[in-house]
Structures are given as C-alpha cells and as structure tokens.
Amino acid sequence: MLLSLADLSLRGGDSYERIYMLESEPVVLGGAEYRVLLPDGVHIKVDRITGGFLVNLDLDARMYGPCARCLGEAVLEVHAEQQEFAPTAKDGWEETEESEFIHDLVVDVDGLAREALILSLPSQVVCGEGCKGLCAVCGKDLNKGPCGCADQKIDERWSRLKGLRLDEGDEPPVKGS
Ligand SMILES: [Zn+2]
Ligand SMILES: [Zn+2]
User: How far is Cα 13 from Cα 48, in angstroms, rounded to an integer?
Assistant: First the structure.
C-alpha cells in the first residue's frame, strides 16, 4: 500500500488521517513463526509542517504462535507507534536522515507498519508470565504438574562434580614446567 504525500495537497498546519486495512506477513521470532493479525488496521496521520511532512503510524497487532517456554499456543497483543519525517526539499538533508520507507514523498505503508511492529516486539513470546515451560530432561509440560525429574537432576550434578575432582588429582604434571 502506497501513500503519496504530495497528492494530499495539504497546507501548512493541515492534517490527514486514514486507516489502512493491511495483511501482514508472519513474523519470525526466536526461530518460531507467528501469525500477525491487524484487526483494527493501521492508523496513519500526516501533519504538514514547515519543511515537510510528519508521518505518524500506530497499530494494534495480535500475534499467534508457540509459547517460547512450553510450546503451547500463545497470543500476544502488541501496540506499535512510529514517526517519520519526510522533507519536501532534499537540500540540507543527509541520506541517513531520510526515512527508509518514504521515497520521493511516497510512503510504503506496509514497510513502515512492519518496521514499527518488529521494533515493538518483546524478545520472546510466552503464553503467560507464570509459564513454567517444559522439563529439560523428560519434556513434560510443567504447567500441567511436576514430572519428578528435579531430584534426579541434582544427583547427576553431584556425581559429575565428584568425577571432576578425581580427574584433577590424577592429572600428570605438565612437561617442561
Ligand atoms: Zn507457555
Ligand atoms: Zn521431567
């Protein structure tokens, strides 16, 4: 979806608002794929200011995919906002200061929405803050109850530690020292 700022014929101080109903590609986070829905669309507000346009985007996304801890179904609500400035004259603006999503006063609404969403994502998606995850030994979903591996794990660590101490004592002296 493209929005041409020049075609809006805004005068200084004018604003333009529109809701774009967009489909979003899935997002990959921590190796897992999350379906993205934008039920209320993407809200764009353009302000004509001195020297250019301020493009404000905000959206509420709902994401569906596996919980990073227990692999069960997780739903995540994300609110994202982003503001970009598009100068009417190129003079005086460095390449790096220009928005990656606005070229020749045409806004790539999909690209900007995706960037805003990705910048607002948490580092991992969980089904709930209290999710206990899966047992690292037997793989049981610990949200459904304990598995009995916990005690065993401690025993294993102890035996490994004992072995280590024995090995250290038996090490031959290093040659030449
Ligand atoms: Zn979970
Ligand atoms: Zn277990």
Answer: 6
- State whether the Cα torsion 47-53-54-56 is positive or negative: positive
Tell me the pTM. Answer: 0.76
Distance from the CA of 111 to the center of ligand 2, in angstroms? 44
- Ligand 2 centre from 30 Cα, in Å? 23
Ligand 1 centroid distance, CA of 146 (Å): 15
More confident: 169 or 52: 52
Provide the pairing of β-strand 32-37 with 42-49: unpaired
Residues β-bridged to residue 76? 63
CA of 141 to the centre of ligand 2 (A): 9
Domain locations along the chain: 2-120, 133-172
pLDDT digits (tens, 9 = 90+) for 15-69: 999 999 999 999 999 899 999 999 999 999 999 999 899 999 999 999 999 999 9
